[in-house]
């Protein structure tokens, strides 16, 4: 089985590649990435050896390259995206170009290929901000340019459902120690600041709740999607709903000297509560640890990787 991972050098892509590299039924993995985040850790620290895994530097809007590459693979993981923290708003152009039209270009190329399975990593941001719990039956109402672009990408991917096994996976906020980890998401940023600065900043009153999933869990479930027999369709991939205050309190248990600073504490920030989707969570085969244990391991990783 030959696999293509767009965005394979990113936070999730690196961990997914490491797992698929260990799967004997996968004969080749092609990583297609433009390295726009200037993160080269997959090449330096992942332990992935050349041979089974091959890297191609390219742009998701390069339709000619995409058509050539998809002709030679059986499974596509589409992770490449212009990424934003949930509920934030930035310039719309790159989101629209990469997440919307980049996905469209990949779908067009896939329609003319012999690909058997397509997995699109979408985002829970397509639901917008909501203080009431949403589930897979909730009508999407994206509020950010990021959420809008990911939802438009979904609409293109839906055209593949009658033609091949197709999975649209709406992910919650990803956190946890990884080779190519991001530090713009709240838990990862908190853990870095707590470990190396000794204080964290909370914006608003901290009672806003968000939906999260650990990097090991999302990578494990995505890796298991390579040959699962669950039905094609749309799934929410969320494990926990936690408030920012609960996160900070849990970190303070691990680091009692931690200083917590509130900024604009009078404000109630937007929140998003997504119900855990057991249809896809049943694919989880990695350890199901508690949140506190996950953070404890996270902090140990930081301490063991630094002489500071």
Main sheet attributes: strand count, strand direction, barrel closure:
7 strands, parallel
Give the integer mean of the pLDDT values: 93
Architecture (CATH level 2) name of the largest domain: 3-Layer(aba) Sandwich
Unreliable runs: none
What's the number of structural domains? 2
Which strand-content bin applies to the residues?
15-25%
The CATH class of the largest domain is Alpha Beta
Can you identify the CATH superfamily of the largest domain?
NAD(P)-binding Rossmann-like Domain
At the fold tier of CATH, the topology name of the largest domain is Rossmann fold
Name the helix and strand elements from N-terminus to C-terminus, one letter apiece: EHEHEHEHEEHEEHEEHEEHEEHH
Helix content: 25-40%
Explain how this protein is built.
With 308 residues, the protein is of the alpha/beta class. Strand 4 (75-78), helix 4 and strand 5 (117-123) form a beta-alpha-beta unit. The protein has helices spanning 11-21, 41-44, 63-70, 92-111, 145-157, 186-196, 215-224, 244-254, 278-281, 291-304, and strands at 2-6, 28-33, 53-57, 75-78, 117-123, 130-134, 165-171, 173-175, 199-203, 209-214, 233-237, 240-243, 259-263, 272-274. The chain folds into two domains: 2-172 and 213-238, NAD(P)-binding Rossmann-like Domain (Rossmann fold, 3-Layer(aba) Sandwich); 175-211 and 241-274 and 286-304, Alpha-Beta Complex (UDP-galactose 4-epimerase, domain 1), CATH 3.90.25.10. A seven-stranded parallel beta sheet has the order 3-2-1-4-5-7-11, with helices on both faces. A three-stranded mixed beta sheet has the order 8-10-12. Strands 6-14 form a two-stranded parallel sheet. The longest helix has 20 residues, at 92-111.
């Amino acid at each position: 089985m030959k696999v293509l991972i767009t965005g394979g050098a990113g936070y999730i892509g690196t961990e997914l590649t490491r797992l698929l590299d260990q799967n004997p039924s996968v004969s080749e993995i092609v990583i297609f990435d433009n390295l726009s985040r200037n993160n080269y850790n997959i090449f330096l620290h992942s332990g992935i050896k050349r041979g089974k895994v091959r890297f191609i530097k390219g742009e998701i809007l390069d339709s000619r390259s995409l058509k050539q590459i998809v002709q030679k693979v059986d499974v596509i993981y589409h992770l490449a995206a212009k990424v934003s923290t949930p509920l934030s708003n930035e310039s719309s152009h790159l989101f629209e170009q990469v997440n919307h039209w980049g996905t469209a270009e990949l779908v067009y190329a896939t329609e003319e290929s012999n690909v058997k399975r397509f997995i699109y990593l979408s985002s829970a941001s397509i639901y917008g901000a909501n203080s009431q719990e949403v589930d897979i039956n909730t009508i999407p109402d994206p509020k950010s340019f990021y959420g809008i672009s990911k939802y438009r990408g979904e609409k293109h991917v839906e055209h593949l459902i009658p033609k091949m096994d197709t999975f649209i996976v709406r992910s919650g906020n990803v956190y946890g120690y990884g080779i190519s980890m991001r530090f713009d998401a709240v838990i990862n940023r908190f853990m870095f600041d707590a470990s190396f600065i000794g204080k964290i900043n909370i914006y608003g009153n901290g009672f806003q709740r968000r939906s999260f999933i650990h990097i090991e869990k999302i990578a494990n479930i995505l890796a298991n999607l390579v040959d699962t027999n669950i039905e094609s369709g749309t799934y929410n991939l969320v494990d926990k709903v936690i408030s920012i205050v609960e996160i900070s309190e849990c970190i303070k248990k691990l680091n009692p000297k931690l200083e917590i600073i509130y900024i604009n504490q009078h404000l109630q920030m937007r929140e998003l509560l997504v119900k855990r989707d057991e249809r896809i969570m049943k694919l989880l085969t990695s350890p199901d640890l508690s949140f506190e244990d996950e953070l404890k391991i996270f902090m140990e990783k930081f301490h063991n990787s630094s002489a500071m």
